Amino acid sequence: MSNPTFRTRISQLRKKKITKKKIVRRGNPLNRRNNDDDCEAPLVAGRSALALFGLVGEGAAAAGGAGPSSAPAASSSTHPHHPPYHLRRKSPTHPVSPPTSLGAGAAAASVVATPPTAASAGVSAATAGLPSPATTPVLSPTAAITAATTYSPSMLPARKRPRRTYSTGDSSTGLGCNTSAAPHYLLHELPDEVLITILSYLYERDLCRVAQVCKRFYTLANDNELWKNLYQGLYEYDLPLFNSSPCKFDFVQPEDCDYDNPWKESFKQLYHGVHVRQGYQKHASKITGRSVTYFETIQVAYDYACDYAECPLVLIHSGVYCGEVIVIETNIAFIGAAPGNVAENVILDRESESTVMFMEGAQRAYLGYVTIKFSPPSCTDTMQHHKSYALDIQENCSPTIEHCIIRSCSHYDDCEAPLVAGRSALALFGLVGEGAAAAGGAGPSSAPAASSSTHPHHPPYHLRRNNHTRSITYCCHHRCTHIQPSMLPARKRPRRTYSTGDSSTGLGCNTSAAPHYLLHELPDEVLITILSYLYERDLCRVAQVCKRFYTLANDNELWKNLYQGLYEYDLPLFNSSPCKFDFVQPEDCDYDNPWKESFKQLYHGVHVRQGYQKHASKITGRSVTYFETIQVAYDYACDYAECPLVLIHSGVYCGEVIVIETNIAFIGAAPGNVAENVILDRESESTVMFMEGAQRAYLGYVTIKFSPPSCTDTMQHHKSYALDIQENCSPTIEHCIIRSCSHLGAAVSVSGPGAEPVIRHCEISDCENVGLIVTDRAQGHYEDNEISRNALAGIWVKNFANPIMRRNHIHHGKDVGIFCFDGGLGYFEANDIHNNRIAGFEVKAQANPTVVRCEIHHGQTGGIYVHEQGMGQFIENKIHSNKYAGVWITSNSNPTIRKNEIYNGLQGGVYIFGDGRGLIEHNNIYGNALAGIQIRTNSDPIVRHNKIHDGQHGGIYVHEKGQGLIECNEVYANTLAGVWITTGSSPTLRRNQIHSGKQVGVYFYDNGHGLLEDNNIFSHLYSGVQIRTGSNPIIRRNKIWGGQNGGVLVYNGGLGVLEQNEIFDNAMAGVWIKTDSNPILRRNKIFDGREAGICIFNGGRGVLEENEIFRNAQAGVLISTQSHPTQSHPSLRRNRIYDGLAAGIEITNNATGTLEYNQIFNNRFGGLCLASGVNPIQRGNKIFDNHDAVEKAVSSGQCLYKISSYTSFPMHDFYRCRTCNTTERNAICVNCIKTCHNGHVVEFIRHDRFFCDCGAGTLNNQCQLQGEPTQDTDTLYDSAAPIESQSLMAEV
Predict the structure, then answer these.
(1) Nearest Cα to Cα of residue 244 among 233, 254, 257
(2) Measured distance CA(769)–CA(458) in Å, rounded
(3) pLDDT band with cut points at 50, 70 and 90 for residue 291
(4) Is residue 401 over pLDDT 70?
(5) Contact at 8 Å (CB) between 659 and 682?
(6) DSSP letter at 1022?
(7) How far, in Å, CA of 133 to CA of 117, rounded?
(8) Calpha distance 902→885 (Å, rounded)
(9) In this protein, which residues make up the domain named UBR-type (predicted)?
């Protein structure tokens, strides 16, 4: 019967089909197997595979591997084992017929049909005797075929079809011997489960032979479970053991291996080894029939392997090997071989001389997975084995010893060694003097508490060895059940005792029982409970007794209770660097015992505890110094301590004079929020003062208050503060709460040259004056502080002070957040400044701070306020959501505002007024309620490379004689004009991108002037540029295009010079001039407009010189006067007007003009078209090569609507039809009058520009000359009127 593991494997195979898998080639030429169905290929590969375990000689291999090997077991050195090729292809979905001869098939059938005895399998004399299992199944091919489904051989694929056979009997009767039935049934009909069960009775060499028969047999013979059983039967290991590199053997989980069959691979790597097994004759069933060499003793196996093996390997199976002489002088590997914990089951033991010795020559020797013991008898003279060891490695050898358990029961080990280490450990907390250390640390210290200065504390050694697993003691005699003291390691052995009774009777007092019980029998929980009653120095002594006590005495909970009882902290406090103390979560520490490490770092400190006599139970028996007042503790620590540290326990310390002039550390010590429970308070003079000499002083985790009585004369404490840091000192103040009730002085004052404190993680709030003042050239680092709710500014920086302030939170002040004045400097980075009543940051009076990456928001007045000649660099800040402007610049101030985001202000973004200056560059200004940048009242900033967009008002607003250089900005998507220039202002705008506005691009009005040069102005809902009411800008070399209401609109008395611009692709006219405006247009290119190039209406004038006007949809220049008292009369000189889709120049509605030396050519409706009553001044014009499409249409009898549609207005005679009741808004062309209105009452109106309403289908009668009607009825519009900007001129 098959075992359960095979049943499991069989059930898996039933559920999963075997699919093809590629061969994994690992560089070995023997791994190359031909995929072609060459009948000889399996035999050639088979020779290599049979050589896998050294089972086939030259003759047998040449014969196809069918014959037995005649080589003896020792022939493994003559015929070395070849590394096997890794046959790892999955079985094909349909079994493939074996490309072997009939004899091979019959031989395979015989393996299945009969038990694998020595005679039937062909085993050699040296390896014969393979046992036949008692219950080997004998299968009948006839019965199997009968049970199977009947099928025709032709139904099989060609390669799987059985070969033709020839019967030796009478063909007429069907009697004969058909030799193909058994092989065919074995190859194709027998289920995988049955075949695997059969293969489970084979050993390794037979499995390799079977794998050469066909692909199906190859897959089955490489089954993992088959090789796992073979592997565990031979080597006994629970996991595959791999020789991953020289002198390294490691167990690996099968699922973590790179091999498809890790059991087979490990089998192969270890197969060249020889085995040592006590009483190996009992295991004959596992030995006979295999090429495996066994020996009874390690020495014989060692000699054999050194003589015959190329890479000697000895596998030592389970057992206790006593008295073996193991002296290793060659490069050989010894490995234990056993199930479970290998080393515990393979024991090498000796009573005299060393158990294992490595001597010269063992350069790459290996020993692993064994227990090595040296167990001399207790009665033996110690001098007999004083030079003997469990493992002895002598000179000039470098072996590798891995995964071994090593024990020695020799009493000759030096007993003083633990005491030497113990002395260092007891000095951990400075508890042992010279005398006590010399005595092994057994006695208590008699030094008084103040003696810590006489005997300085030594830095402890870090006792962090892992918890040692309890040793397993073996006895050479299996009946031994008691642990003998001599078998224990030297440090765990009980001391020698002396009986006080009668030795002959055995009566007396043996004192060894209690120590032995304490060391080995008492549970850990009981011992930890006992140790919990000890203080730190006693725990350190206990830790020196043995490894078990060391582990227990370093228990985290023990030290946590000690720590919290002495220091009161909830978390470990570490002195991670000079002048830095931080609480750390225990799980985030790198120390094995964070409580003990913190205890050690703080142990040299002295304690201040009010009424400390009440805590006598925590003080007596400890080397801890307590004082009642801070001043006494300070004096004591400065006099006696090398690194003075004062721990101030919970309480309110009023009236203490704390003047610090040395490098000392003061730390609050309390549970919960430490600083809230340790309060230093004073009513007169400063509470804490740092003076010259306090270069590396420290103050942390306390509350510092200055509380003068309200009735006290204010002059008494006008120079008093909660914290006063004076010149030439650089203390560190951390995690403190600082308050001041004084209406005159700040809470924290840092003043004088050389004052360079580090103030971090402090809270400075609810003060009646300024929170922090840095003055008189003081410096320092101020980081991660909370500064809030102060009556005046959160921070003052003045008189050339130059602090560094990072990551502070400054908010809800009743004045300014930070105020720099009177030459104050400073570097402010990543601060959060918000909700202050005035500005978040104020700069004045020559102050020049650097503000980088701060967030300044929700100010009740503004974000940044620079005034009275203030300066400063404001870089990469976020300035948003302030009630007024994000940045205010005024009164000759000149700051740099660079790379900031200024957005969502309730008024403007940047407001420059009152002679303000400044450099505003690379900012992103958006979403503000008023203008993104506002410049007024003689201010003259430089504004460049900014993005000003999506404002709820305009982009840039320059008014009230504002100036400035505005260049290379992108102004877009603002609700009103992109740029407003008004009321006498005269800025310079160069190389800006002004686009996508919801009104005008650039708007000049009310005497707005300035230079608009090299800008790109496009895609506005109104005109690109509008000029009105006395404005007279210079507009030069701009591109103005894509406007939905025209390119340039000059109206209501507007002036200006437009030269060298490109004005194109606008929805209406390129340039509008109307209502008494008189601009100068010179050398512009006006083209591709969707209406006229230039329209001059309603009294518009102007000088048009040397312009190129071409490819416009309507007239190149249209001059008209509609119900305006002033006649339109422009001057056109030396212009080129060509390629228009209508006329070149049209003059209508009694308008006039002066036309001199113009060139008008190649226009569709003619060169110059004049309406009735129009008589312009003409001189030297050249009108040529125009296409008179209107006259051609009239002469051909076409309706003029056919050539004009409703998009252009050809100039010709037009009529009205009284019969059809046409209105003054309608016109009919001459051909429609003749044809469509023949016989009607008609009247001639005038010669002018129109399109035909009859052809457009807007009259009652359908036009007989035109097709489908349209819906347009406005015939006589000269052109749609431009939309004038209705922008509100809001001012801040």
Answers:
(1) 257
(2) 48
(3) confident
(4) yes
(5) no
(6) S
(7) 9
(8) 9
(9) 1197-1268
User: Could you give the CA distance from residue 270 to residue 110 in angstroms, rounded to a whole number?
Assistant: 31
Largest CA distance in the chain: 166
Q: Which residues contact 1093 (CB under 8 A, 6 or more apart)?
A: 1069, 1070, 1071, 1086, 1087, 1109, 1110, 1112, 1115, 1116, 1117, 1137, 1140
Buried-exposed string 61-98: b where 16+ CB fall within 10 A, e elsewhere: beebbeebbebeeeebeebebbebbbbbbbbbeebbbb
Output DSSP code: residue 1112.
-
Phi-psi group of 1180: left, alpha or beta (phi > 0 → left; psi -120 to 50 → alpha; rest → beta): left
Is the pLDDT at 384 greater than 70, yes or no? no
Mean pLDDT of 237-246: 91
Q: Degrees (nearest 5) of the Cα angle 415, 418, 424?
A: 145
What pLDDT digit, counting tens, does each position of 964-984 carry? Answer: 999 999 999 999 999 999 999
Extract the tokens encoding 561.
Answer: 């209770």
Q: Tell me the C-alpha to C-alpha distance, in Å, between residue 53 and each of 204, 270, 745, 1189.
A: 8, 11, 95, 106
Q: What is the mean pLDDT of residues 442-467?
A: 33
Phi, psi of 388 (to 5 degrees): -115, 145
By the 10 Å C-beta count (0-12 exposed, 13-18 middle, 19+ buried), 100 is classed as: buried
**Three-state DSSP string of 20-65:** CCCCCCCCCHHHCCCCCCCCCHHHHHHHHHHHHHCCCCHHHHHCCC
User: According to the model, what pLDDT value does residue 1047 have?
Assistant: 96
Cβ-count burial of 14 within 10 angstroms (0-12 exposed, 13-18 middle, 19+ buried)? Answer: exposed
Give 1050's contacts (C-beta < 8 A, 6+ positions apart).
Answer: 1026, 1027, 1028, 1056, 1071, 1072, 1073, 1074, 1077, 1079, 1100, 1102
Three-state DSSP class for residue 303: helix
Asked if residues 1266 and 1251 have their Cβ atoms less than 8 Å apart, the reply is no
Q: Do 337 and 370 form a contact (C-beta atoms < 8 A)?
A: no
Confidence of residue 1219 (pLDDT cuts 50, 70, 90): confident
Q: What is the pLDDT of residues 658-691, one digit of tens each?
A: 999 999 999 999 999 999 999 999 988 899 999 9
CA angle 1257, 1259, 1262 (to 5 degrees): 55
Question: CA dist 671 to 140, 564, 674, 1149, Å?
Answer: 87, 8, 6, 96
Residue 1214 makes CB contacts below 8 A (sequence gap 6+) with 1227, 1228, 1229, 1230, 1245, 1246, 1247, 1248, 1250, 1252
Tell me, rounded to whole angstroms, the distance of Cα 1259 from its chain centroid. Answer: 74
* Residues found in the chain: 1292
CA atoms within 13 A on the CB side of 307: 8
- Cα-based distances in Å from 36 to 39, 42, 79: 9, 10, 30
Task: Out of 59-68, 173-182, 1042-1051, 1267-1276, give the one with best mean pLDDT.
Answer: 1042-1051
Query: How confident is the prediction for the chain on average, in pLDDT?
Result: 78
> Which residue matches tokens 């003749």?
1234
For residue 510, give Cα distances in angstroms to 484, 490, 504, 513, 732: 16, 20, 14, 7, 62
**Other CB atoms within 10 A of residue 121 CB:** 21
Q: Are the beta carbons of 311 and 305 closer than 8 angstroms? A: no
Tell me the residue type at 734: E
| 642 has a pLDDT exceeding 90 | no
- Measure the CA–CA gap between 111 and 113, rounded to whole angstroms: 6
Instruction: Decide: 1098 and 1128 in contact? Cβ < 8 Å.
Output: yes
Distance between CA atoms of residues 1145 and 897, nearest Å = 51
* Residue 840: pLDDT over 80: yes
Tell me if 34 sits within 8 A of 41, measured CB to CB: yes
pLDDT digits (tens, 9 = 90+) for 1094-1114: 999 989 999 999 999 999 999
